[in-house]
Amino acid sequence: MTQNMSFLRNFFLYKCLVALTFWNHVSLSVEDELFTSASNNFPEDGSNQKIKSLPLLYTNSHQSKANFDWVVIQNSTESLSLSEITNDNVKKLVTLLSNFRQGSRLQNLTLTNVSVDWNALMEIFQTVWQSSIEYFNINSVTQLSDIRRYRFDYSGTSMKALTVNKILITDLYFTQDDLYRIFADMNIADMTITDSEMIHMLCPSSKSPFRYLNFLKNDLTDFLFQKCDNLLQLETLILQKNKFESLPKVSFMTSRMKSLKYLDMSNNLLRHDRADVQCQWAESLTELDLSSNQLADAVFECLPVNVRKLGLQNNQISNVPRGVAELKSLEELNLASNRLADLPGCSGFPSLQFLNIEMNLILTPSADFFQSCPRVRELQAGHNPFKCSCELQAFIRLERQSGGKLFGWPAAYACEYPEGLRGTELKDFHLSQLACNTTLLLVTALLLTLVLVAAVAFLCIYLDVPWYVRMTWQWTQTKRRAWHNVPEDPGTVLQFHAFISYSERDSLWVKNELIPNLEKGEGCLQLCQHERNFIPGKSIVENIINCIEKSYKSIFVLSPNFVQSEWCHYELYFAHHKLFSENSNSLILILLEPIPPYLIPARYHKLKALMAKRTYLEWPKERSKRALFWANLRAAISINLPTADENPCGETD
């Protein structure tokens, strides 16, 4: 019975302590552990067992949360968080922390919203330094009074890491060394001071045990740690979001840090434009972040030779110079958000395995990248303004052959140009091999040209095009000379009823039948015949043209002999030309003998067309039908010529 009452009393005490702690806004991160510890001491089998006692420290006041009215201290407590520390309650805080001597379980302390004077702050630090606390976090600190030199005792501490965030110093006039010396000489492994507008930090007075320093978001400049020989164990240095400007000076800063492996200089104002300035980095430096600065191509002249991971994203780099940097150990390179127009080669980075070149200005990346960079396992090249053209086809084929080395494929790879293809993923962009293979395209075009030339040549030969060109030229020249000879009256006066075109082999029929029946018969027609009407001294072609021009009609005596005559072809061509140029119906075809189609040469295509479309007179073999033939022929060429009265019927020149 006594044991059960003891159990209930201890459990009730625990509950009260937790409630009071919460009410006073003093939080213990191990409250759950306390409850678990108490629960684990409950008798599972009903036997009488006791839970461990919970020591209690309390004060007499019950006013506000900042006065630490009730504070629970548990020997098994490992973490403690307190807030709203002021000059009014700092003595109580020091008293509280003094109970955590070395050997206590308390290892983690967090103070938030601390507003005290310099001496009180130093007293808090000094108490923590002599306690069991290993990790001290202090947030939102406001320093209210004058900063003076303080003799800080760093000996015999359990401290390993200090994190200070947002320090506001209201005192404008103080010796900076008095402030920075306290932090510079701390004998701990890790120190973080962030978002505190800190403009400087002293080099430690002696060999420092610092392994990790984080000065994120301050106002530090190029003067930091220059010629500092006491940071020999420092491995990680974070100087992100400060005001560094000179990359060579940063390199000199690290040259004496013999153990430095990681350096973060991102989001500063770093430049390096002078090629004559040599850089000197720590040989141990293997990881360097220079992202979000103002670095250009010359940065590759100022890089640590043993670096393995290099961040250069969000700078102003437009080209990776060849033969400048020899980074044989470089495995990971980030060049995202720069101005590069192509993938860099690996001539200076033989060990490169990861490359990020997203969000640059790459239109058509080189297809031979993986050949020049055989060790690359992952390439991030998405979100570039790709120009979908033939050149890009090779890069798309490269993706298929790379075995998944393109990170973000296919979503991050889309066409930007031309505008009609904007947004199209590269995997959906295709062009024919003929359109993209210049050699094949040239060969195809050459073959088509040869075929076309051969076809035109064949048609020219088959249709006798050169002959027609020559005849057209002669027609044009003859007409031009005629116009020059008769300037007042360019028109042509008709002198003949008809011009007769026939083969010399058919001349007997023309002289014995055609001419007598037309000139001496009814109508008294005047015919133009080459034997009597061609003018000596003029070319045959010119005589043919003149006779056709001066004749009302042109009579063509067709026979197998006609199609074999070159001059008959000339006469037919010029007469046909007159037919179309003057829009007249001046052709009369007389079929003296039937002409088999196979006998008509290919160049007589006009004759074929005329015989197919126009009515022709066929010479009848029966004498009884010849009178009608002559009557039809006279009717076709009957016209009153202006010179008819001057040439009596039957007279010829």
From TrEMBL:
SMART domains tied to this protein: LRR_TYP, LRRCT, TIR
GO biological process: cellular response to bacterial lipopeptide; inflammatory response; innate immune response; toll-like receptor signaling pathway
Principal localisation: membrane
Signal peptide: 1-28
Pfam family, one: TIR
Transmembrane segments: 440-463
Location(s), subcellular: Membrane
InterPro entries: Cys-rich_flank_reg_C, Leu-rich_rpt, Leu-rich_rpt_typical-subtyp, LRR_dom_sf, TIR_dom, Toll_tir_struct_dom_sf
A single Gene Ontology CC term: plasma membrane
Keywords: Glycoprotein, Immunity, Inflammatory response, Innate immunity, Leucine-rich repeat, Membrane, Receptor, Repeat, Signal, Transmembrane, Transmembrane helix
PROSITE patterns according to UniProt: LRR (PS51450), TIR (PS50104)
Domain annotation TIR: ranges: 494-637
Membrane topology: Single-pass type I membrane protein
MF-aspect GO terms: lipopeptide binding; signaling receptor activity; Toll-like receptor 2 binding
SUPFAM superfamilies cross-referenced by the UniProt entry: L domain-like, Toll/Interleukin receptor TIR domain
UniProt family annotation: Belongs to the Toll-like receptor family.
Name used for this protein in its record: TLR1 protein
Organism, scientific name: Rhagologus leucostigma
Top-level taxonomy: Eukaryota, Metazoa, Chordata, Craniata, Vertebrata
Gene from which the chain derives: Tlr1
